[in-house]
Amino acid sequence: MKNIYKSFSLALTVLGILIFTTTACSDDDKNATPNESLQGLWRLTELKYVPMEAPAAEDEEATSSEAEADEEEVETEDPSTLYPDVDGVQPYLRFGTSTYTYFEVTTADTTTRETGNYTLANNEITTESTEPSTSILGYEITGKQLIMIETHSEAEIFYYAEKVVGDPFLEEAPSENEEPENPDEEEVTGCAIYHDTENAPYGSSLNPILIETGVEITDSLYAIDGKNGHEAKFYLQVEPYTAFRIHLKDLLTDYADVHNLFKYTSIHVTDAFSTDQVLYTTKIEDGQKQLQFDLFTTTSCLYIEFFSYQEGVKFLFEVEDLSGTQE
Questions:
Q1: Residue 2 contacts by C-beta under 8 Å, 6 or more apart in sequence?
Q2: Would you give the distance in Å from CA 222 to the centre of its chain?
Q3: CATH number of 187-321
Q4: Residue span of the signal peptide, if any (predicted)?
Q5: How far apart are CA 88 and CA 110, in angstroms?
Q6: pTM above threshold 0.85
Q7: How far is residue 215 from each of residues 29, 232, 318, measured CA to CA in Å?
Q8: How do residues 5-22 score in pLDDT, each as one tens digit?
Q9: Which CATH architecture describes the domain 4-176?
């Protein structure tokens, strides 16, 4: 029987994975279970191997021999594996704020198989393991169920998982807790106390991404659940009454799917989590790729939000601290 680690490692190392994301939750169905966020612990329940149909052969003998070969493959290879498997192995996936861990649990011990970092953009997950290897994945979450699909020329592999309430393994083995790697998030102080880090997607308006001054940020817009548009929100923990310069260095757009009235990308800057204290706001029209402006904060938080009705918008920007600059 196949080992889930080998198959899952392929999923993280083979590019060209076909994945789709759905966040549809009918407003008419009041009893529907809300979709879980990707962050948290997922228990893998099944791996399903679905062979692709072989092309029709011109020669009957060739067709017959291929059919016999296919029958042999079916007999020797289990198309589906339920977990825990016959050996008692139960795989888990843990997604933190920006890190992931894949591990297996048996009655004897817990074995970590793979760890790394991940980012979200355009409904895709880009992972970078410690091996190292970089892959692009996606996901479909319906209620508490997660489905991942890996597509090869010869077969499709489906991974099914369900959300686990809490994380008992972190309580039993605190040394494996990935949160201490980011002290800012561990304490949940300052600006972050207003963010919905448990339920809102990372990079959304309710759960912005922490950045620093003097660092170029390259990212793209995220789809907004239940809304028409795409966004990406960032924040900085700053000193009050400080001057900053925001420099949009590049903006890549292709407004092929929206009406002329909506061919723009907006930037909205505030120094509070709510939008009450607006420091700067503007629309970047089609064809404009760069922008630079200065502002002055009155609080210890600085929020920068990008929005567009067009998907696939990418950008490069940097925030500069002007407190030590002599004009």
A1: 47, 49, 77, 78, 81
A2: 9
A3: 2.60.120.380
A4: 1-26
A5: 12
A6: no
A7: 45, 17, 6
A8: 555 554 544 433 444 444
A9: Beta Barrel (2.40)
